[in-house]
């Protein structure tokens, strides 16, 4: 069925007031959207930052009177409404719409990431079947792509792997499919652990080859290869811990780093690693190297 969509142009300070008011007058959903393509890269823990120019979108039943909604919002907030607009939009299968836009992607020479609902373009290639679910990591983001391309270029036979901040499990599962006998995944988000486990099962990975841990339960056994696709701040703060997880002579790949953050992250690892030239993609970088 169709829906009435109401759009308000708000500031972050107005967000809670208008979200509550819209729900009070009958909105069935409320969504915040960036109005000016303004990125938010590293929010503080425990915060939900909004863009300086935000659009608040609310859906109502199609027969809702938009003018009545706006009048009630004014009464509830006791203020003139910010810039606002209403339109009727057609219903659609939102999940199917998202799935249709997610196509197989190739990384390096051997590796394909294939949505679990899509046929593999090259059945004889290394095909990783992926359903990202609620966790980050599909291969579409430059940082994930940089790490996948790096893994495709590594000789992983007989190598143990740690995926530090595993998200959907995409990097560890890629390493296993590319020849690694064993990989450990860790993440602070239980949904990431669940998504990684589901994706490993989808790819026929024996759970014994891919144990998953919350950070406090993770064994501190060093590995031959460590990949950490998180954010620059944690990579710097956790540099001593991540370094200890790499065996002497082992290899490390770091991403989740903006180009302007590369020098700070490189400096945090330079003493312990012989670092490769920084690889860049769309303003994001990968830092890799071998431990002394």
Automatic annotation (TrEMBL):
CDD domains: AdoMet_MTases (cd02440). It comes from Pseudomonas cuatrocienegasensis. One of its GO terms (cellular component) is ribosome. Keywords: Cytoplasm, Methyltransferase, Ribonucleoprotein, Ribosomal protein, S-adenosyl-L-methionine, Transferase. Methylates ribosomal protein L11. It is found in: Cytoplasm. NCBIfam families: prmA. S-adenosyl-L-methionine binds at residues 144, 165, 187, 229. One of its GO terms (biological process) is methylation. GO terms for molecular function: methyltransferase activity. InterPro entries: Ribosomal_L11_MeTrfase_PrmA (IPR050078), Ribosomal_PrmA_MeTrfase (IPR004498), SAM-dependent_MTases_sf (IPR029063). The lineage of its organism: Bacteria, Pseudomonadati, Pseudomonadota, Gammaproteobacteria, Pseudomonadales. Gene3D superfamilies: Vaccinia Virus protein VP39. It is an enzyme of class 2 (transferase). Belongs to the methyltransferase superfamily. PrmA family. It comes from the Bacteria. This is Ribosomal protein L11 methyltransferase. PANTHER family: ELECTRON TRANSFER FLAVOPROTEIN BETA SUBUNIT LYSINE METHYLTRANSFERASE. The keyword Transferase applies. Its EC number is 2.1.1.-. The keyword Plastid does not apply. It catalyses: L-lysyl-[protein] + 3 S-adenosyl-L-methionine = N(6),N(6),N(6)-trimethyl-L-lysyl-[protein] + 3 S-adenosyl-L-homocysteine + 3 H(+).
């Amino acid at each position: 069925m169709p829906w009435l969509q109401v759009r308000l142009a708000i500031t972050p300070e107005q967000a809670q007031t208008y979200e509550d008011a819209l729900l009070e007058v009958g909105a069935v959903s409320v969504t915040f959207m960036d109005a000016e393509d303004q990125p938010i890269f590293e929010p503080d823990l425990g915060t939900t930052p909004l863009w300086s120019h935000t659009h608040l979108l609310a859906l109502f039943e199609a027969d809702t009177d938009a003018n009545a909604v706006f009048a009630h919002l004014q009464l509830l907030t006791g203020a003139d409404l910010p810039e606002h607009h209403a339109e009727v939009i057609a219903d659609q299968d939102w999940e199917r719409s998202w799935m249709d836009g997610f196509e197989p992607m190739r990384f390096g020479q051997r590796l394909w990431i294939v949505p679990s609902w899509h046929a593999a373009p090259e059945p004889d290639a290394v095909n990783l079947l992926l359903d990202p679910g609620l966790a980050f990591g599909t291969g579409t983001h430059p940082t994930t792509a940089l790490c996948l391309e790096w893994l495709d270029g590594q000789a992983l036979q007989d190598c143990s792997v740690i995926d530090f901040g595993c998200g959907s499990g995409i990097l560890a599962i890629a390493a296993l499919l590319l020849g690694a006998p064993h990989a450990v995944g860790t993440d602070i988000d239980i949904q990431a652990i669940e998504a990684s486990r589901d994706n490993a099962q989808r790819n026929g990975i024996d759970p014994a080859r891919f144990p998953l841990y919350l950070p406090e339960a993770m064994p501190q056994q060093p590995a031959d290869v460590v990949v950490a696709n998180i954010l620059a701040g944690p990579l710097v703060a956790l540099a001593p811990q991540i370094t200890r997880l790499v065996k002497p002579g082992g290899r490390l790949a770091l991403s989740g780093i903006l180009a302007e953050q590369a020098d700070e992250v490189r400096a945090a690892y330079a003493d312990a690693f012989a670092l490769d030239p920084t690889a860049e993609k769309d303003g994001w970088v990968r830092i890799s190297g071998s431990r002394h």
